[in-house]
Design brief:
alpha+beta; 296 residues; 2 domains; 10 strands; Triger factor/SurA peptide-binding fold; disordered N terminus; Chitinase A, domain 3; five-stranded antiparallel sheet
């Protein structure tokens, strides 16, 4: 009889260590009748450059997005095609230098069809419109709330000190030129050296950034270094993602406490931001209570 032999072979194969593994996509969450796949969460994290530990936060954001889009569908909210096309043109202009071929290449790299990406852009617009309709247009900041915020957090309302700083920036492939820059600075003005070597947007002006708030125009590491520097001193070389920065602090003024009138717009924005979060959170909780949600 051949059947026992066949069964023996099948049994042996089922117990054997597999020679290869097949990765099967799984469901991360169910929102009503819709699903969110683990691959969708992973793709969103890659797009946002988030580390693995941000997976739960990313999944929750996608669940909230599904809830908002479902609510928009129930409210019969629509976005016209010309609005979607305008948004796509903005994305192409800002993220791809106006070159649609670069967009196509990016989508091909992610193995995302254009139609699928366009639908996501449309859904983003729907979600933003729905949020504005339910949350943003209904947010206000009362005088009492603003006075309370100003009294509770005075450290947030100060007139930032401004500085004038000169910058020499070297591209990653030019990092070996640090020694040449250091040598030239011994015999040349900082501005001359900046014009000679720097890849900074202000190089033609001798690398000079005049009367700026460091936190607004520089990365945190650079702003922090500028804050520690006395006037008329040079920093050491700072390395950020392979780019080399050398700074000279030309002048600077200290921060001071703002009056309520001076800080009015900033206080109002802060209170509205906090109130918008409360309103949004309450709305999302209501949508969750009305929808079957299952996290896998």
């Amino acid at each position: 009889m051949k059947f026992p032999v066949l069964l023996s072979i099948l049994a042996a194969l089922s117990c054997a260590t597999p020679l290869f593994a097949v990765i099967i996509d799984g469901v991360a969450a169910t929102v009503g009748s819709e699903t969110i796949l683990k691959s969708e969460v992973d793709a969103e994290m890659r797009r946002s450059g988030l580390p693995p530990e941000r997976y739960p936060e990313t999944l929750n954001a996608l669940v909230e997005r599904k809830l908002v889009i479902r609510a928009a569908a129930q409210a019969k909210m629509t976005i016209q095609d010309w609005v979607v096309e305008n948004r796509i043109r903005e994305i192409v202009e800002t993220a791809f230098g106006g070159d649609r071929n670069r967009l196509s290449a990016a989508l091909a790299k992610e193995k995302t069809p254009y139609a699928e990406w366009r639908e996501r852009v449309k859904e983003d617009l729907v979600a933003a419109a729905m949020r504005w309709n339910i949350v943003d247009k209904n947010v206000s900041a009362s005088p009492g709330e603003m006075r309370e915020e100003f009294a509770a957090h005075p450290e947030k309302y100060s007139a930032c000190g401004k500085v004038t700083v000169a910058v020499i920036l070297l591209k990653p492939e030019d990092s070996a030129k640090r020694a040449k820059v250091d040598e030239d600075l011994k015999k040349m003005d900082f501005g001359e050296v900046a014009r000679k070597y720097s890849a900074d947007s202000k190089a033609k002006d001798g690398g000079l950034w005049k009367d700026v708030e460091p936190a607004e125009v520089f990365q945190e590491k650079i702003a922090s270094e500028i804050a520690k520097m006395p006037v008329n001193t040079l920093s050491g070389w700072l390395d950020i993602d392979g780019w080399s920065f050398l700074l000279k602090k030309v002048s600077g003024t200290k921060a001071r406490a703002m009056t309520f009138a001076e800080a009015h717009d900033k206080i109002e924005a802060e209170v509205k931001k906090a109130n918008a979060k409360k309103l949004y959170d309450a709305w999302i909780e209501r949508l969750k209570s009305e929808t079957y949600i299952n996290f896998r």
